[in-house]
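Intended use. Records like the one below are meant for learning the mapping from a protein sequence to its folded structure. Do not use them to infer anything beyond what is encoded.
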Amino acid sequence: MLNTICRESKQPDCESYRRIFETYYERVYYAAYCVIKDPDLAQDVVQETFMKAFQHLHTVEDTEKIGAWLSTIATRTAIDHLRRMKRWSDCTMEDAFWERECCALTVETIVENALLKALLMREIDKLKPNYKEILIFHYLHDLKYEEISKLLDMHIGTVKTRVSRAKTKLKELIEQQPEIIEVMR
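Structure written out for the chain above:
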C-alpha cells in the first residue's frame, strides 16, 4: 500500500496523505514526545513533521523505511524546538525505550532492565545535544552510520567520531553512578 502511495507521491491526493498520517501518527508522536516531554509541544512537532514530510515525500527512495524516515524528521524537529526554547536542561529521556520490547523471561529481569534503561536514559539526558542526538539516532532508531551521515549531512567519519565520543562521555557519567554499576552486575 505505502509503496503505491510513495510511487504516486508526485501528485498525491488528500486520501494518500491521510493514510500515511494514520499509519505513522503514533510512531511520530512517540518520537517527538521522547525528546520534548510535553504532550502539547509533541503535537506541534507531529504537525510540523508531517508538513515537512509531505513536502519531501517524493525524495523517499526506500519506502520500506518511511517509518524510520518520519521518526527521524520528528526527532530532529523536536530537537530544533528544544534548541529554540533552550530547554535542554529541563528535558528528560527516561521513557525513551518504550518502543523496544523486553525479551526477558522473568519479572525480576524485566524490572532490572527497566531500571537500567531508566538510569541510562537519565545519564544520556545529561549529554550535550549533539551527543544526545547521535545516540538517539544510533541506538533508539537503530540507524546505521551511513543513514545518520545522510540525515545530518556530515561525513561518516564525523558520525563515527561523535558516536564514539558520546559513548565515552556516557561511560564517564555511568562510572560516577554506583547505582547504575550495581544494576549492571
